[in-house]
Amino acid sequence: MKSSYVRFAALNLIGLLLSGLLFTWIARDGALDFRLAQLFFDPVTHGFPLRISGPLDFWGHTMLKLFTVWILVIAAVVLVVSNWVDALKPWRRALFLFVLMAGCAAFVVQTLKGVSVHSCPWDINTFGGTAQWFPLFGPIGAMSGSGLCWPGGHASGGFAVMAGYFALRDSKPKLARAILWFSLGIGAVMSLVQMARGAHFLSHNLWSMWLVWATCFVIDALMRIILPPARVAR
Question: Sorting pLDDT into bands at 50, 70 and 90, what band is 100?
């Protein structure tokens, strides 16, 4: 591997380790998560008023989710079409990596969310629900509730777009960085929407971002061995 990639990989490993420790520390007692959730909680009605907000649910939840899904669908379609369109052939490897990494990242997050024992804020007794909160890596509470709320699935759609950064980092560095910032921005917006609705804590979304980045990084490293850029037909 080139020395530039070795440096990139080392920085990623260090960054993932340090951010993982930071996110674990943030979720150790739920203090920050609860403090932010309280900003959107109404103690009078014992609920999150924006949970049933039509515009926020439609534009912030449904439409943003569809937007990120269509990015992946369009990329997959263009990848297939690139087999017959010469102008798209130079983009074939990047498109393939984007679809692969984004799809796998979303799958990882949704799989973990599907077996999670951690409940959403609106299900926790502090916020009008019945479930008991407990630390991410702590003993499961006797009243853990329905679970299925860690990591943040909605935000993962926005963060998954960062697969484009890994796919284009070598060939189109400026475009790759623009995609990275776009992904982080839309992921942050989707995270805020779910926090405002009482659907997720901050730490849920931070771990979603971490898992997406880690998945993309691992796949990118493996594909550099299996399918290096120099061996891709143009």
Answer: very high
- pLDDT exceeding 90 applies to what percent of the chain? 86
How many degrees, rounded to 5, is the angle at CA 180 between CA 14 and CA 159?
85
177-209 pLDDT, tens digit each: 999 999 999 999 999 999 999 999 999 999 999
Q: Which two tokens stand for residue 37?
A: 């959730």
Alpha-carbon span 217 to 166, nearest angstrom: 7
d(CA 183, CA 180): 5
* Range 84-89, long-range pairs (CB < 8 A, 24+ positions): 89/233, 89/234
- Length of the chain equals 234
Kindly state the tokens that stand for 112: 């973990």
How many other CB atoms are found less than 10 A from the CB of residue 218?
Answer: 16
Q: Which one-letter amino acid corresponds to residue 39?
A: L
Burial status of residue 94 (CB atoms within 10 A of its CB: 0-12, 13-18, 19 or more): buried
Q: 188: Cβ–Cβ under 8 A, 6 or more apart, which residues? A: 155, 158
pLDDT band (50, 70, 90) for residue 1: low
Element (H, E) at 16: helix 3-26
Domain ranges of the chain: 3-231
Q: How many CA atoms lie within 13 A of 44 on its CB side?
A: 1
Per-residue pLDDT tens for 206-229? Answer: 999 999 999 999 999 999 888 776
The answer to whether 33 and 135 have CB atoms below 8 angstroms apart is: no
pTM of the model: 0.93
| H or E element, residue 168 | helix 163-168
